[in-house]
UniProtKB/TrEMBL annotation:
InterPro entries: PdxA_fam. The keyword Aminoacyl-tRNA synthetase does not apply. Its EC number is 1.1.1.262. The lineage of its organism: Bacteria, Bacteria division TA06. Pfam families: PdxA. It comes from the Bacteria. One of its GO terms (molecular function) is 4-hydroxythreonine-4-phosphate dehydrogenase activity. Keywords: Metal-binding, NAD, Oxidoreductase. This is 4-hydroxythreonine-4-phosphate dehydrogenase PdxA. The gene is pdxA.
Length: 331
């Protein structure tokens, strides 16, 4: 029986949010402690101060230096990203945005360049803080896509309930023009491949959601289904991908137990039902990257940052799913 503990890099996210708190709490959870080798990326001084102020025990850790190998002990390793100014919990700032950005860049390099981690789990970022720092990205998904040069799919996961997105962070008014048969096909192909390789599902079955109410009722409410979505599904079926739809958005989630994944056309079409059914237990997974990347399903929660009341469950689930994906990728 293997005693290998998967090496998982975990970013601090925006340090002014609840990311550092849920990270430390998660690492102390019995489902995580001793089961992985965590490589935490963030400001050491902030973690220590947070631990003291909230009376949360910080796991024993090893400070990592450039070129240092990871000890196979399960002990926490820390890659320090120094905070040169004070970070105030719950406050937007460019310094917090810079730390969040730098932690993401380091997380990619520890896997792709230094080969000392098997996956990355990212704590939530504040997009406004990151943009204030001069790094203009809509979110983690877009930044990792640029770093890798790969087309990606954002997918939300809770147990066997999985929802992938065709478009991510764009305005509703732009969705129709953005989607195309080629894009639908690419998202279906990436989703299918990931379900097989990372979730160990042999013959995935995917449901596709329509853009318009009632799947347009034969063109009464738009023509995107006929001109874009159905042709994209047809392209994917030529690759022997098992697909049904397009289904009306108001009923498709009632069928979620019949499918291995649902492909939604835009952000809120996926996120509203997913979070109603799975909030604080769900995990954001980026498919199509050369690395495994997961994240909690919540944001920075500035309103409760620094108060010690943040629930770590979604962070715990993100780590557990990353661990499962590492194991499945090696089968």
């Amino acid at each position: 029986m293997s005693t290998y503990k998967p090496r998982i890099a975990i970013t601090c996210g925006d340090p002014a949010g609840i990311g550092p708190e849920v990270l430390v709490k998660a690492l102390s959870d019995k489902r995580i402690y001793g089961q992985i080798t965590p490589i935490v990326i963030g400001p050491e001084r902030y973690f220590v101060n947070l631990s003291d102020s909230l009376n949360i025990e910080l796991p024993e850790y090893i400070i990592m230096k450039r070129g240092m190998m990871v000890e196979e002990t399960g002990k926490m390793h820390l890659l320090d990203v120094p905070a040169h100014q004070m970070i105030i919990p719950g406050k937007v700032s460019d310094i917090a945005g810079k730390i969040a950005y730098k932690a993401i860049i380091i997380s990619y390099s520890v896997i792709m360049e230094y080969h000392i981690a098997d996956a990355v789990v990212t704590a939530p970022i504040n997009k406004y803080s990151m943009n204030l720092s001069g790094h203009h990205y809509a979110g983690h998904t877009e930044l990792y896509s640029e770093l890798s040069g790969k087309k990606v799919v954002m997918m939300m996961v809770h147990n066997n309930f999985r929802v992938a997105l065709v478009t991510n962070h764009i305005a509703i008014k732009d969705v129709s023009a953005f989607i195309s048969p080629k894009l639908i096909f690419e998202k279906l192909k990436l989703t299918n491949e990931a379900l097989i390789r990372l979730f160990n599902i042999k013959n995935p079955k995917i449901a596709v959601v329509s853009l318009n109410p009632h799947a347009s009722d034969n063109g009464l409410f738009g023509n995107e289904e006929k001109n874009k979505i159905i042709p994209g599904i047809t392209l994917a079926k030529d690759y022997d991908i098992n697909i049904d739809g397009p289904f009306s958005p108001d009923t498709v989630y009632l069928r979620r137990n019949q499918y291995d994944a649902i492909l939604a056309m835009y952000h809120d079409q996926a996120m509203i039902p997913f979070k109603l059914l799975s909030f604080n237990k769900g995990v954001n997974v980026t498919l199509g990257l050369p690395i495994i990347r997961t994240s909690p399903d919540h944001g920075t929660a500035f309103d409760i940052a620094g108060k010690g009341v943040a629930d770590p469950e979604s962070m715990i689930q993100a780590i557990l799913i990353a661990k499962e994906m590492i194991q499945n990728s090696r089968i």
